[in-house]
User: Fold these one by one.
Assistant:
Number 1:
Amino acid sequence: MERITIDVVSDVVCPWCYLGKARLELAIAEVQDEVGVTVNWRPYRLDPDATSDGTDYRSHLIAKFGGAERLDQMQDTLREHGREIGVNFQFENIKVRASTLDAHRLLHWARIEGNELQDRVATALFKGHFEDGLNIADHGVLVQIAEASGLDPAVIGALLASDADKDTVLEEIESAQKMGVNGVPFLIFDGQYAVSGAQKPDVLASALRDIANMKAEARKGMI
């Protein structure tokens, strides 16, 4: 069985990234008997000007997208897409537009412990923000998510209170931008092939199969 690594460049306050995560999981499940997949969650900040304290979420989006009616239409579309695959967007619960830098630091530390643990943290961050309306810039919230996901809360609390790995995360975001990433989600397969946007599960499953077949053919050619 060929194995493929997917680096998912995303932001945990991006609704299309949450949708994309669920769609990717369905695609991986579809090809699990044919292709082995490892997923790494990589950082991006859609709103680098957001602060740790946060500002009003809805007011910011109304200004960003040009009015309440347009925002409501966009969110209704996302709700509809989400319902199809078990994502329950509750935009009305979100009160705070906050920085995601510390959430990305948490994901960075989780990846050190393993991809599965990092994936649990990513899911908890998305769900916490988009369904429960949690302020994911709040260190108390991040510590709770870390503990529930299997990380040591005391260690994570101490790391969050410091500047540990802030530069690392920011450098990784800068590297993604230099590669041409200007929107998320952005999926990079085996460091070579890119897919932009929250593609449907069948599209992603087809991409996984195609890449696995190319790798298998290349391996045959080396023998």
Number 2:
Amino acid sequence: MGGGEWVSTSMPYLTPQDTSAADAWRTEAAARGGTGRQRIVRAGEVAAPAGVAEAFGLTEGAPVVVRRRVMYIDELPCELTDTYYPVEIARGTRLAEVGKIPGGAVTLLRELGHRGVRVREDITAELPESDASETLHLGPTEPVLRIARTTMDSYNRAIQFDMMTMPARLQRLRYEIRIG
């Protein structure tokens, strides 16, 4: 792939996939002539940080399930993603385990009876926290884009919250919105 700009769209990551298909990241990377992979660093219950608690309508520190992944393009780390779920949805499921989920987490959520119908993304540019800087091999003053994505069901309840951190120099985000 090289050092060019990566244009990313959210839609492939929001819709359920065939359980036999390659994951959305691998497919997106291949379509751009690269090799994508992800490594699940950890999964399980943690105390909800403030932003996660707010998204789920919980008290800060309440238990939630998190999956931390590092995304790679051509073996270079390019994104750090923490995906959170309410414990009542994820406890005791593959969402709380380290390991690949056939068809991805969105597909498993649908199988568990939770379908996202609306997504809100808040994007900021900032300096990385030390763990993100180390994981993504960034200098201390190199900015990152942080995308906080909340997926809601038809009852307007948050069923998934993603916090994605990526080097700003490599990214351009594209949004296409149907208005008619």
Number 3:
Amino acid sequence: MHDEYRTVAREGVHEIEINKSRFICALAPAATEEEAQAFVARIRKEHPTARHNCWAYVIGADGSVQKASDDGEPGGTAGVPMLQMLVRRETRYVVAVVTRYFGGIKLGAGGLIRAYGGVVGEALDTLGTITRRRFRLATVTVDHQRAGKLENELRATGREVRNVTYGTGVSIEIGLPEADVETFRSWLADSTAGTARLELGGEAYGDV
């Protein structure tokens, strides 16, 4: 399992014009294939008169799901170069839709490949990418007296505090890099004089 991956920082749009044809690239993060397909459907609805809405997406931290569509453009001239750009830039959990409004001048296969791949690359540059790292979720349970000080110390040492729940004790959910678990266990015992309880949960990805 990959410890980190790169994805697009936010949803957004970037447009270029080549020989009077408009190429509008909509990019978005997508956690699942269903999310990616829903984004494609949404962009299609926004551009009902466009001649083509070509798309590509990469899902999975290891890029295990990769799909693309030329949507009526000559085979291999749109979806594939879009997908290749996403893969070359090592982005994951990302979907791109390029809407083309034809300007009357044919670009040829090479021109289309450069246009579709190029607008995706420019969109990634414009919107920016972020790196997300794999964490082990963990819950620290401590008494109310120590909770405030401990939470402050966790934040001060750069720990990702995800949630705080108040009950008979205080439960603080954090994200830990796998390699830090044992070091953190020792630190926690020292910081709370052994009164805190640490429970390890599943895994998630968070921003670096």
